[in-house]
Design goal:
The chain is an alpha+beta fold and 246 residues long. Among the domains are: 63 residues, 2-Layer Sandwich (Alpha-Beta Plaits), CATH 3.30.70; 77 residues, Alpha-Beta Plaits. 28% of the residues lie in helices and 24% in strands. A six-stranded antiparallel β-sheet has the order 3-4-2-5-1-6. The longest helix has 22 residues. The N and C termini lie far apart (137 Å).
Length: 246
């Protein structure tokens, strides 16, 4: 019984010594003596000696170099300056082409119109030709209305001859049959004088304009560069007026 108790005490003693060896010695197991984040204290005697701050003796060459002043240009290496970019000048805005649209004519024949088109081929941006029908005055007619029948027209003619009104004839066909024609005039002034002469002789003469439908030829052109083309020096004898562009 005593031996068994002694054996248990030895075991407990061994356990206590082992625990003290493992947990009680901080330096053996690398434990820090201070808390984390707190700087460690050192004695003055533990600090390493400070290095000597006495300047080293200068050699004559070094002293002379130190005594010689250096200019800023020689002490500093030249720095290459980057070229300053020059802003590009804005190019002038291009002027849009402007166009003048005109109708040239009327031309008397298609040949005249084609010649004008060939003369303007180097100046016109676009061209087109067209034909129109128009009413043209052919003259002025002085006449006496007939009596409706051939016999009445002949009787009126004998009365004109008796009054010394000559140069007349009786229309025998068409819409104006049995009418007494007193003359066809290009100039309206001459037609008025003839009418007044017959009226003075006692006959109710009348005057009317004679027209006919004729063809006209036109050339429509579109000229660029603000219409400064000298088309008048190339095409003569015709007029012009503005027209819609095409």
């Amino acid at each position: 019984m005593f031996l068994r108790l002694l054996f248990v005490l030895l075991i407990a003693l061994n356990i206590a010594v082992g625990a003290w060896l493992l947990l009680g010695q901080d330096d053996v197991h690398g434990r820090a003596a201070t808390d984390a984040g707190v700087p460690e204290l050192h004695l003055l005697s533990e600090r390493p000696p400070a290095p000597s701050s006495a300047p080293a003796p200068a050699t004559p060459a070094t002293s002379m170099a130190a005594a010689t002043p250096t200019s800023p240009a020689s002490s500093a290496a030249p720095v290459a300056q980057a070229p300053v970019p020059v802003p590009a000048l804005p190019s002038p805005p291009s002027r849009p082409n402007t166009y003048t649209c005109m109708a040239l004519g009327p031309f008397a024949t298609q040949t005249d119109m084609r010649n004008a088109r060939a003369a303007l081929s180097s100046q016109a941006a676009r061209m087109r030709q067209r034909q129109e029908q128009t009413t043209q005055t052919t003259g002025w007619w002085v006449y006496l209305p007939g009596g409706g029948t051939r016999d009445k027209a002949l009787e009126l003619g004998r009365r004109l001859a008796a009054a010394n009104v000559g140069e007349y004839f009786i229309v025998s066909s068409g819409d104006q049959s049995n009418t007494i024609s007193l003359g066809l005039f290009k100039d309206p002034a001459n037609a008025r004088r003839r009418r007044e002469q017959v009226v003075a002789a006692g006959f109710p003469a009348q005057m009317s304009e004679r027209t006919e439908s004729v063809a006209e030829y036109w050339l429509d052109v579109v000229i660029a560069d603000n219409g400064h083309a000298d088309w008048r020096n190339r095409v003569r004898g015709v007029g012009s007026h503005s027209t819609g562009c095409f």
